[in-house]
Amino acid sequence: MTGGVVWRGAAPPGLRRRWVGRLLAVAVLAEICAGAVAVAHVRTAGRSGWLSADLLGGPVAARPTTPDRLPAADRTAQARGLLEHRAAALLRRDRAGWLAGIDPRAAAFRAKQSAVFDALAAVPLQRWEYQLEPGHDRSLGSAARRRYGAPSWVPAVTLRYALRRVDGEPTERSMVFTFVQRSGRWYLASDADVTADGARSWRGLWDFGRVLARSGQSSLVLAHPRNAGSLATFTAAVDDAVPAVTAVWGPGWRRQVAVLLPDTQTEMAALVGQRFALARIAAVAIADHADARSGLARGQRVVVNPMNLHRLTPLGRRIVLRHEITHIASRGSTSESMPTWLIEGFADYVGYARVGLPPGIVAPDLRARVRAGRWDGTLPADRDFRGDAPGLAVAYEEGWTACRLIASRAGTAGLVRLYRMVGASQEPGSRAVDPALRRVLHLTYPRFVASWREAVRAELG
């Protein structure tokens, strides 16, 4: 889902001179939370750019052995053994073992996998394993099958990996592995094929080159050598942001954050998915699974847009990271049916807390609409937070002002309480917000909206 700080309109001359140099006008921050079948905060399936398969296939019936075809059970056993050996070799840093099961005729793939092995050397891996289950096989196009000149097979494979300290449970990413049979043996021939239904392998930072790592008190920052100079800066910034977010949300989250610094927007798109207007994004908080009932979330990462990486001032970096880390802290209490204005407004409330910026600087687009008499005074709909929405900046500012109003009347603890209540509700949208407002502010939803409208016009008009 999209979220965060957007390019701001012009401020009054006096205020602009004081604040423009301090506040980075960055593009929209975005974050996604992909569930078991890839869902995001926005009610759109597949936003994360990776596929999650429900690997519950039953046994595959064996077929008669021929010179070119082993029984399916033998094929599965061979592939599983190959992947188990490959994963174990990576963790013990055994290059020969990592490359042992690769197709002898796939020289380019072997070279690429050797480079990936080197790229992963500094990444603090706690776990790395593959899950293969028969019964959900994918199909290659006829051209790809002819290219191999041998029987090919694309089973359902999931990579499960965990970063040391950061991940309590492994994160899961779907891989498209093509196996080929040569002389009665199955080999791994590619991870770059695109299946007939458009599936492709997830890509990690290490698929794009050597990865450097730096750990702090609460942080793990991964970057390529090109951004080596940013490692210490972001490590310190995350270490500063985590206790600030915890002071608002409470200690009931892991409090370890991984930040990825890709080199290019092409790389970022591969990491977070293709459905964002990347020119407007400063950073993305992603996850592959979140369970609002248990409060657990897996695979949480903050990915910084390289287009804006070096434009971040210290203040801008502070706001961006606190906004995104708020999403990470609150992910387990954030339900799919929550209104986006509350999700993003809360993250902005934490991001802008105690930075001393006047409301007109934080919400210049909303202020401009109010003063021009073009503001309708309604809370933004979920669709207003889409990356291509024309009023995206105003939607964020409306969410921020609404959460700021709640906190001004019930305190920060009251805002957090309301957020948790809405996240725990089984009702969607305003039907979940109304009872929470009644308990926290003693206002109905319509009365709250009316109060918010009056406050915005009084402060920004």
Task: Give a structural overview.
This protein is an alpha+beta fold and 461 residues long. It folds into 2 domains: 13-50 and 209-460, Neutral Protease, domain 2; 72-201, Nuclear Transport Factor 2, Chain: A (Roll), CATH 3.10.450. Helices cover 41% and strands 17% of the residues. It contains 15 helices and 13 strands. It has a 6-stranded mixed β-sheet with strand order 1-10-13-9-8-7, with helices on both faces. Strands 2, 3, 4, 5 and 6 form a 5-stranded antiparallel β-sheet that branches. Helix 9 packs across helix 10 (340-352), helix 10 crosses helix 13 and helix 13 packs across helix 14.
Q: Which features characterize this protein?
A:
461 residues; alpha+beta; Neutral Protease, domain 2; five-stranded antiparallel beta sheet; 15 helices; disordered N terminus
Give, in order, the helices and strands.
HEHHHEHEEEEEEHEHEEEEHHHHHHHH
Distance between the termini: 30 Å
User: Can you tell me the residue ranges where pLDDT is under 50 for at least 5 consecutive residues?
Assistant: 1-68
How many helices? The count is 15
